[in-house]
């Protein structure tokens, strides 16, 4: 079988994640972080029960958050899927009729369901991790004999710590969703793999920069810097995949 890369036909922006896609998700996660910060400020860790009331409140918030998490994750994934579909349409005219038909019938439902479940778990993990952090701080203060003011100050940073994770989580998860949808649609039309595309700037990891232009089989995700995954699928990776299409 002969193969050709989509680089020959696709615009340079094809399959490249955009900042716009991450903004909604990032803002949503930051709202959760601020709510966690507000909850933390309401509880006095110096009381008879220590951090137990705060931990209980954070776990209640985790449970209450699930319906909102479902809706928020679905909206993010819908946006990513729509943009990914547009990328495919940008050059689908270069395909034969049969390939276009197979592309239109690609079943992305399984991937979307998997991503939805993962995003809901990720969103609800934020208050759960905040509760674990509070317990850890309290336990360490008992061992070190830290003063109450130090314990309180460290607990009050919980919202900031959660918020600092919002940008990398949003960037990673929107990029990963886009990459997985690209893979699902590519494999549906018989694509054997893709050309790795990276941003060659000072923010790009050397190992990812070296991958630029290399062919990667879908069944063989590379391991770079101890992390295994396709372009755009590992934390803080801005790289993306340009599928290699089958060509008679």
Overall, the morphology is elongated
Structural class: alpha+beta
Beta-strand proportion:
5-15%
**What Rg, in angstroms, do the CA atoms define?**
22 Å
CATH class: Mainly Alpha
Please name the CATH topology.
Four Helix Bundle (Hemerythrin (Met), subunit A)
Identify the strand order in the major beta sheet: 1-6-2-3
Query: Which H/E pattern describes the elements?
Result: EHHHHHHHEHEEEE
The number of helices is 8
Q: CA-to-CA gap between the ends? A: 7 Å
CATH architecture: Up-down Bundle
Look at the structure and give the mean pLDDT: 87
Number of strands: 6
The biggest sheet, with number of strands, parallel, antiparallel or mixed sense and barrel status, is: 4 strands, antiparallel
**Low-confidence region ranges:** 1-6
Helical residues, percent: 55-70%
Number of self-contained structural domains: 1
Structural account:
This protein is an alpha+beta fold and 248 residues long. It has a single domain (2-247), classed as Four Helix Bundle (Hemerythrin (Met), subunit A), CATH 1.20.120. The protein contains eight helices and six strands; from the N terminus they run βαααααααβαββββ. The radius of gyration is 22 Å and the shape is elongated.
List keywords for this structure.
alpha+beta, 4-stranded antiparallel sheet, single chain, 248 residues, two-stranded antiparallel ribbon, Four Helix Bundle (Hemerythrin (Met), subunit A)
Helix-strand blueprint:
Layout (H helix, E strand, L loop, with lengths): L1 E4 L13 H24 L9 H40 L5 H8 L4 H36 L3 H8 L2 H7 L1 H23 L4 E5 L8 H6 L3 E3 L5 E2 L2 E2 L11 E8 L1
Antiparallel strand pairs: 1-6, 2-3, 2-6, 4-5
Helix pairs in contact: 1-2, 1-4, 1-6, 1-7, 2-4, 2-7, 4-7
């Amino acid at each position: 079988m002969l193969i050709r890369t989509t680089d020959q036909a696709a615009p340079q922006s094809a399959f490249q994640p955009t900042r716009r896609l991450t903004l909604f998700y990032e803002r949503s996660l930051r709202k959760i972080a601020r709510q966690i910060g507000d909850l933390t400020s309401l509880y006095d860790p110096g009381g008879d029960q220590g951090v137990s009331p705060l931990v209980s409140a954070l776990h209640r918030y985790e449970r209450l958050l699930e319906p909102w998490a479902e809706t928020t994750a679905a909206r993010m994934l819908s946006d990513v899927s729509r943009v990914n579909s547009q990328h495919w349409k940008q050059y689908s005219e270069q395909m034969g009729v049969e390939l276009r038909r197979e592309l239109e019938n690609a079943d992305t439902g399984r991937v979307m369901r998997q991503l939805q479940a993962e995003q809901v778990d990720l969103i609800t993990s934020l208050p759960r991790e905040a509760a674990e952090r509070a317990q850890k701080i309290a336990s360490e203060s008992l061992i070190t004999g830290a003063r109450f003011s130090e314990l309180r100050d460290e607990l009050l940073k919980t919202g900031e710590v959660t918020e600092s994770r919002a940008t990398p989580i949003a960037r990673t998860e929107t990029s990963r969703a886009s990459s997985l949808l690209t893979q699902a649609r590519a494999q549906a039309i018989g694509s054997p793999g893709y050309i790795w595309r990276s941003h060659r700037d000072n923010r790009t990891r050397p190992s990812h920069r070296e991958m630029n232009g290399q062919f990667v089989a879908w069944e063989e995700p590379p391991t770079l810097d101890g992390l295994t995954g396709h372009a755009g699928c590992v934390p803080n990776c801005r790289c993306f995949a340009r599928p290699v299409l089958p060509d008679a």
